[in-house]
Design goal:
Strand 1 and strand 2 form a beta hairpin. The chain is mainly alpha-helical and 238 residues long. The chain has a two-stranded antiparallel ribbon with strand order 1-2. The chain starts with 6 loop residues before the first helix and ends in a 12-residue tail after the last helix. The longest helix is centred in the N-terminal third of the chain and has 32 residues. 22% of the residues are buried.
């Protein structure tokens, strides 16, 4: 898009030119994709390239802005990663499904873990604790979550729960149990997030990484695949 924004550019390159660009830039574009690009370019109804000079100039400028934005994001991600590794929050990276940005946001929203005696206090802080509904002197049942806590923490707890539901096999049994009961996905994500609060509370209190039961799991490899800007030190995960 940056260098060949017009269909005429694609046709001028041809299949050989497109394949060379794919190889030089390690894009691994499939043959079917190359053929589709040429097919669409050949049947395009757009105006001639010279007639679109102003529009193409604006497109080029917008692409430059996006590239600059990507650089800023990468810079911030590097700083987040560096800062997280200076705290006990890095222990959260030992959990499959939890990346650097998610771990940093979750850890920062939890606050000083030493101020809490049990994880239920953190669940209440997030406002993801279910409200007990009673009527007529009955036993009562759990209704919607209270939503009376920290809104930012509540959002990240939900996000964490969704990530774990999709990517963490250690908690698959817990997820399947809730799913089999017919729970709505949103309720499952909240429950998974609350489950993680309990796990994270124990990890941070004891300063110990997550202990996975999965075959082939290794903490070092888990950190290595998540850290983009830091060369992992074995002593960090020993």
């Amino acid at each position: 898009m940056e260098h060949y924004p017009h269909p005429a550019d694609i046709l001028e390159l041809g299949e050989i030119g497109l394949r060379k660009i794919s190889k030089d830039n390690k894009l691994r574009i499939r043959q079917s994709t190359l053929e589709s690009l040429l097919f669409i370019a050949n049947r395009s109804l757009t105006r001639q390239k010279e007639e679109l000079r102003p529009e193409l100039l604006i497109l080029k400028m917008k692409i430059e802005e996006l590239k600059q934005l990507d650089e800023h994001i990468a810079c911030l991600e590097e700083e987040i990663e560096h800062t997280l590794l200076q705290t006990d929050g890095h222990l959260l990276l030992s959990v499959r499904g939890i990346g650097v940005v998610t771990a940093a946001e979750f850890y920062s929203e939890l606050g000083d873990i030493s101020q809490y005696d049990n994880p239920n206090q953190l669940i209440k802080k997030a406002g993801t604790n279910p409200i007990v509904i009673q009527s007529g002197g009955g036993k009562g049942y759990f209704g919607k979550i209270s939503k009376q806590g920290n809104r930012n923490l509540r959002f990240i707890v939900y996000t964490v729960g969704k990530c774990l539901a999709q990517h963490n096999q250690d908690l698959k049994l817990f997820y399947n149990r809730l799913k089999d009961k017919g729970k709505h996905p949103r309720k499952i994500y909240v429950a998974m997030g609350n489950k993680f609060i309990k796990i994270a509370f124990a990890m941070l209190k004891n300063k110990q990484p997550f202990e996975s039961t999965l075959e082939g799991y290794h903490i070092y490899n888990e950190y290595k695949k998540k850290l983009r800007y830091t060369k992992i030190n074995q002593s960090l995960v020993a």
